[in-house]
């Protein structure tokens, strides 16, 4: 059952919604700390986890958990050099993947497709080095 949104919880959610870089709990905390001095990193993390369980946010696995307010199926790109995690809106999700899993008896409740490599900026720096 979804919890009611407190002011802190609402600001945490809005921060993730406004950012396009799939922030970590630490990134959200650092952004909100000046306006909410009593906010703790633990509170941010617990709220992000709860909103992910409720389906309001998507949690993206990696060395550090990142959060995405875009919960519809879409793909991501992770730069191995700078660590950026970006949406690949132009790469359509192929629902045939879900159908193939279902045909084998799997009950798909979600997916995560993350391409990895070098982002354009890092690739250019590597090329010019």
From TrEMBL:
Gene3D superfamilies the record matches: 3.30.1490.190, Winged helix-like DNA-binding domain superfamily/Winged helix DNA-binding domain
Transmembrane region(s): none
Pfam family, one: FUR
Keywords, in A-Z order: DNA-binding, Iron, Metal-binding, Repressor, Transcription, Transcription regulation, Zinc
Residues annotated as binding Zn(2+): 79, 82, 119, 122
UniProt cofactor(s): Zn(2+); Mn(2+); Fe(2+)
Keyword field contains Zinc: yes
Biological processes annotated in GO: negative regulation of DNA-templated transcription; regulation of secondary metabolite biosynthetic process
Keyword Metal-binding: yes
Cofactor: record remark: Binds 1 zinc ion per subunit. Binds 1 Mn(2+) or Fe(2+) ion per subunit.
One Gene Ontology MF term: zinc ion binding
InterPro entries: FUR (IPR002481), Fur_C (IPR043135), WH-like_DNA-bd_sf (IPR036388), WH_DNA-bd_sf (IPR036390)
Coiled-coil intervals: none
Residues that bind Fe cation: 111
Family: Belongs to the Fur family.
Protein name: Transcriptional repressor
Protein species of origin: Candidatus Oscillibacter excrementigallinarum
